[in-house]
Each structure stands twice: as C-alpha cells, then as structure tokens.
C-alpha cells in the first residue's frame, strides 16, 4: 500500500468523523463516558451495557464512534477519580492512584490532572497514527488466513489472556473452558442440534454476551462494593491551579514518550490492553528513575507514564478487533457485539466493505481525545462535584439502567433473568478466586473457534496436521506452546508471581 | 481432610470445575459425537468437559496437599440475594406493571439491600428514577415496552 492510499484513507476517515452527526455522537460518547468513568464503582463494561440502547437507532458508524468514545472517555474519567479520591474507577487507573493521589494530598492535584490530560492526549495522538499505519498491512495478512490460522490465532489470544492477567494459570484455563462451554449453548450451526438449551426457546440463539457481562461485572461488582463500607477522602476543594510548572513538563516528557511506546505495543497484543499497559509503564518508570524511592510519594512520572500507556493501549486494542475480528479484551468484545447487531460481520473484510466505518472510527478516536482535553481541564470542577454523590444513590440507578439496557437488546425478559444467574455466578466465582474476564473471553471466542476448528478439519478430512502445515498457523501454535511451557518453569513462575503480587499490592 | 481444606479457595474451585465438566460431558451424550473429520454436536463439548474436569481434579488434589492456599472470603449471601431480587423484580414485574412501577420497585429493593436505607431519600430517588427512565428510554429513545400497569393501559 502506497502513501497515497494512506492519505486517502485518512482523508476518508476524517471526512466521516467530522460530519456534524458523527461529531455530535463522538462528543456525547466521551461526555457520557467521562461522567460514568468519574463515578467510582462503574467500569467501562457496565457503562457500555447501560448505554447500548442509546446507540441502537444510530447508523452503525455513529454507533461505534459513540461506543468508542464511551470507552476511552470512561478510561479518562477513571484517572480523575484515581487522583482525587484514591479510588480507581477501573482497572487501568489503579496505578494512577499511587502517585496521583499523593500529589493531590500535597496540594498538587491540579498539575496531576493536567499532566494526566496532556499524557493521554499525546499518547492518543501517536497511538491513532499507529492504528492508521498498522491496520492495512494487518488486514492484508489476515485476508490470507484460512480456518487453521484463525483457530491458532484465537488459541494464542486465549493463552495470552491466561498467562498475562491472572494469578493462577490453572484456574484461568478452567475459567476459559467454562466460557467456551457457555458459548456452546444454543443451536449448533453444523447439525442444527439444540445444545444445552433445556427446551428453553430463548436459548436457541445462545446466551447474550451483554447479559453475561452485566451479570458478572456490573451486578457482582455492586455486591462486592456494598460489602465494604466506603471510606472516601475527597480533595474537591484543593484542586487549585491546573498549570503544571515548567519543571513538571520537563520531567514528564520522557515518561510520556516511553509510556506511549509500551502502551501501544501491549494494546495490540491479544489480551493486552490498557490495564497491563499502565502497570508495565509504571514499573518501567520506577526502573529508569534516578531515585526510585520517590515513587508512591507523588512522583509526577508515576502519573505521566501510566496515563500515556493506558490511553495508548486503549486506542491500539482496536487494531486486532477491527482487522481480525478478534477482541483483545471484554470492551472490544462488546464492540464486536455492537457491530453484529448492526449486521456488520467483524473481520478483515470490514476495511474493504465498510471503509467509512473503519477509517471514520479511527479518525474519531483522535478527535475524541482532543475533546477529552477540552472537556476535562476547564470543566474539572464539575466532575469533581460528581464525586460527592454518595454510592447509595448510584448503585440502584446502575442496577435499573442495566436491567433496562439488557431488556431492550431484544425485548427479552429472559435476558434479564440471565443477569440474575450470572450475577450470582460471578460473585461466587470471585469469592473462590476465579476471575470472570477469561471466562468471558472464552465465551466470546468459543463459537468462532469451534467453527474454524471444524472447518479446518473438514478441509483436511480429519487430519490434525492441518494446524501445523501452514507456517503462520504453526508459528502461532509454537508461540502459544512456548508461553504455556514457560509458565511452568520455576524461575519464570517465581518472577511472574512477584510481578503479579506487585500489581495487587 | 482437615477443616482448613474446606475453607480454601482452590478446594471449591476444583469441586466447581469437576461438577461443571462432568455435567457438560453427561449432558452432551444426548447428541451424536461423530469423528474428527465429521464432528457431531457432542464432540467439542465432550472434549471441553473432560478437560475442565481434569483441571478441576488437579486443582482439587493440589489444594488438599498444600494446605496454605488462600481462604474463601466471607460470603454475604443475604446481600447477594437481595440485590439479585431487585433484578429479578424487574423481570417479573415489567410485563404486568409496566416500566414506571417496576423501576420504582427495583430502586426500592436495591436500596433495601444496602446498609443505608433512609425512607424519604429512597422514595424520592425511586420516583425520580422511575419517571426519568420513562422519559429517557421510552420518550427520548423510542424503546417499546409496557409503561403503565395492565389495568391502566388504554
């Protein structure tokens, strides 16, 4: 692909994204996303589930632009809460709490918020460019993929999810398999048999992904939040001057650059994304710092690096979703669900069949990031006031909106009943140390994997050699095996244990 | 088996995985299994169920050998049930009572589950959220659902 195509694509994307309609939905998305992200105890999954009905009536491009805006807006709002209340709105801002909140306690909340905004915007800009540059070549490679390659790639994605994000590899594998089994419920595409439907008509089309996500994330999380009475100390009136000093900017420049690189790279990886990116960036800043003991005591690098990384990761995780149709995290899985609701089959053909959607979405991410800066810095006072809303007023509203959101997906009471079931399941699984994220990834990838697995073996007449015949498939499987084997080596297992213990401390 | 094993997270994870795995295998025997080349609908679930049960068994055995694993945190079943009840109320009440009344019930039940009930505030927020969701979802977003109780409709 030549430079001309690239410019043409970008122009098409920008033209799509700056139409009045799409600008409006992008703005609405980042506004609602920030609003929800600021409120502690609501993550992007619940945010998207609650706001999906808002996007039904829209054109697919506008709908996806708005959903993307909700996602990175929520991410952004989460950092504000992390800095001012020491409560991470969601996983990726856990690290921002460490130094951001300390800065706030020292009366430097303003500069912390400003640096977070600058870091996010700079990283978002670079990451959007990376999306533009990588998308076309990746989609071209993906277009040559057969069923065996797809199967191997998804397997690698699942194993990546297991290895990277969880404490116990064995438990995570188990949860992935539970998800794969849940994904089998419904009509078998090949034989037409009703599997595990227990005669329930509503299950013939399978279990709705949104109902599961709302159950195991939103509802189970509310119960967990209510278990612990909250002790919040809010620095609402101490935001002070937003302007970071010249010195702050100078100290932050390199961390922002490093964070952007780390975040962009980890975002593309299957199962990478924003959470891992911010942890990695924080660890890296601590490593390269002359005086690591300043970290955790209000070091501005500890805000700049991770904030750049999580925003970069939040942008680049769209790449595998858009080019391969493979979601690297739960939010991307919900985006795929939204695409399918609008009758767009995810995969490498999206770029050729729906170029406005593809390039418009990518261009809108940059515009959305610009809006976020404008929205957040001058208006930070409003967001701060939101923080004083007590949780007892919030969670009934979350429950209600989740119920309505899930019901309106297909006007199905049954889907609301599924929330009850998966809420209980998610809560109990969390109690025995089983994380729901791998289960959901398994659930989403399962049906696709079975389909590709069967098709590959149908072509090869049942010969398993098909998975290692093509160099791409063999290579992907080799990486997957290497990852799994390396986890059982004692030295690496110890190192991994240490890293994950640090993350959780 | 000592008492501390019964409190370990891994012990219960193992049990849960074994139960789910064997359950899946048992249920999928109702369908033809086929062969690798022409897989029947039972092929994939049987393989997955066996794998899950095997993993569950390993986790279970490890938890019995190693007694120092993490303990199951306190489970607040009463809280869980009340929150789930508020969701279930929506499922049960929406058709007969319509959105406004069911939304109010959901909010009140949810508040009852938490630790700060405050009657006045609960009633006020129930009214606001009930009419607010009606205006947002039905009026502004044009979603079709029953709004008023059956005896008031038409």
Quick overview:
The complex is a heterodimer of chains A (505) and B (154). In chain A, 76% of the residues lie in helices and 1% in strands.
Structural class of chain A: mainly alpha
* Structural domain count of chain B: 2
Q: What is the N-to-C succession of helices and strands of chain A? A: HHHHHHHHEEHHHHHHHHHHHHHH
Instruction: Bin the helical content of chain B.
Output: 55-70%
- The CA-CA distance between the termini of chain A, in Å, is 47 Å
The greatest interface here is:
A-B, 62 and 69 residues
- How much of the polypeptide of chain B forms β-strand, as a percent range? under 5%
- Give the overall average pLDDT of chain A: 82
Q: Low-confidence parts of chain B, pLDDT < 50 over ≥5 residues?
A: none
Oligomer: heterodimer
Quick tags:
A: 505 residues; two-stranded antiparallel ribbon; 2 strands; 76% helix; B: 2 domains; 0% strand
Would you write up a description of this structure?
- The complex is a heterodimer of chains A (505) and B (154).
- Chain A is mostly helical.
- Chain A has one domain (3-232, 251-504).
- Helix content of chain A is 76%, strand content 1%.
- Chain A has 22 helices and two strands.
- In chain A, α4 (60-85) runs antiparallel to α12 and α6 (109-143) packs parallel to α13.
- Chain A is globular, with a radius of gyration of 22 Å.
- The termini of chain A are far apart.
- The model of chain A has no long low-confidence stretch (mean pLDDT 82).
- Chain B has 154 residues and is an all-alpha fold.
- Chain B has two domains: 3-65; 77-140, no CATH class.
- In chain B, 69% of the residues lie in helices and 0% in strands.
- Chain B is built from five helices and no strands.
- Chain B has helices spanning 3-6, 9-28, 43-65, 77-113, 119-140.
- The longest helix of chain B has 37 residues, at 77-113.
- Chain B starts with a helix and ends in a 14-residue tail after the last helix.
- The model of chain B has no long low-confidence stretch (mean pLDDT 88).
- Chains A and B meet through α3, α8, α9, α17 and α18 of A and α2, α3, α4 and α5 of B.
């Amino acid at each position: 692909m030549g430079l001309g195509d690239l410019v043409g694509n970008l122009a098409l994307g920008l033209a799509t994204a700056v139409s009045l309609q799409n600008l409006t939905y992008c703005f609405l998305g980042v506004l609602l996303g920030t609003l929800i992200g600021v409120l502690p105890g609501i993550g992007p999954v619940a945010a998207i589930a609650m706001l999906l009905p808002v996007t039904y009536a829209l054109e697919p491009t506008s709908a996806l632009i708005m959903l993307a805006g909700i996602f990175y807006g929520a991410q952004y709002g989460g950092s504000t809460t992390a800095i001012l209340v020491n409560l991470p709105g969601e996983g990726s801002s856990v690290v921002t709490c460490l130094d951001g909140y300390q800065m706030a306690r020292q009366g430097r909340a303003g500069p912390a918020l400003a640096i977070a905004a600058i870091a996010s915007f700079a990283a978002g800009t670079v990451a959007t460019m990376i999306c533009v540059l990588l998308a076309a070549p990746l989609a071209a490679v993906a277009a040559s993929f057969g069923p065996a390659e797809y199967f191997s790639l998804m397997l690698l994605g699942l194993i990546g999810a297991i290895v990277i994000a969880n404490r116990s590899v064995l438990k995570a594998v188990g949860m992935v398999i539970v998800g794969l089994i849940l994904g089998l419920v419904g009509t078998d595409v090949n034989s037409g048999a009703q599997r595990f439907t227990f005669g329930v008509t509503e299950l013939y089309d399978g279990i709705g992904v949104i109902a599961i996500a709302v159950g195991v994330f939103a509802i189970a999380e509310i119960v967990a939040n209510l278990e612990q009475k909250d002790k919040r100390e809010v620095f609402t009136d101490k935001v002070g001057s937003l302007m970071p000093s010249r010195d702050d900017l100078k100290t932050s420049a390199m961390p922002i650059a490093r964070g952007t690189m780390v975040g962009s790279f980890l975002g593309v990886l299957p199962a990478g994304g924003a959470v891992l990116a911010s942890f990695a960036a924080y660890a890296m800043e601590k490593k390269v710092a002359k005086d690591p003991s300043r970290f955790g005591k209000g070091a501005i690098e500890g805000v700049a690096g991770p904030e750049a990384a999580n925003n970069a990761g939040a942008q680049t995780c769209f790449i595998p979703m858009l080019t391969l149709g493979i979601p690297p995290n739960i939010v991307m899985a919900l985006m795929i669900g939204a695409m399918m609701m609008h009758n767009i089959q995810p995969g490498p053909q999206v770029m050729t069949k729906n170029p406005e959607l593809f390039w418009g979405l990518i261009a809108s991410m940059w515009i959305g990031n610009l809006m976020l800066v404008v929205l957040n810095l001058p208006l930070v006072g409003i967001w701060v006031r939101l923080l004083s809303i007590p949780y007892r007023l919030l969670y009934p509203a979350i429950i209600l909106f989740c119920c309505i959101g899930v019901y309106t997906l297909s006007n199905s009471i049954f889907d609301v009943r599924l929330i009850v079931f998966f809420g209980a399941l998610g809560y109990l699984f969390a109690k025995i140390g089983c994380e729901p994220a791998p289960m959901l990834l398994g659930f989403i990838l399962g049906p696709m994997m079975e389909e590709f697995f069967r098709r590959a073996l149908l072509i090869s007449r049942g010969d398993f050699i098909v998975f290692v015949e093509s160099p791409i498939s063999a290579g992907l499987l080799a990486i997957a095996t290497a990852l799994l084997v390396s986890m059982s080596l004692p030295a690496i297992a110890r190192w991994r244990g240490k890293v994950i213990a640090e993350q959780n401390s | 088996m000592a008492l501390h094993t019964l409190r370990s997270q891994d012990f219960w994870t193992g049990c849960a995985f074994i139960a789910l795995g064997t359950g899946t295998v048992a249920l999928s025997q109702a369908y033809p299994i086929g062969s690798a080349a022409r897989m029947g609908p039972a092929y994939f679930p049987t393989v997955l169920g066996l794998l899950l049960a095997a993993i569950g068994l390993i986790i279970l055995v490890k938890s019995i050998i190693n007694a120092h694993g993490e303990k199951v945190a306190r489970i607040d079943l009463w809280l869980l049930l009340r929150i789930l009840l508020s969701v279930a109320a929506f499922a049960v009440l929406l058709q007969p009572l319509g959105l406004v009344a069911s939304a109010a019930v959901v909010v009140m039940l949810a508040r009852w589950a938490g630790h700060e009930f405050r009657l006045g505030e609960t009633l006020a927020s129930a009214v606001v959220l009930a009419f607010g969701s009606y205006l947002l979802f039905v009026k502004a977003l044009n979603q079709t659902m029953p709004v008023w109780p059956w005896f008031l409709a038409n």
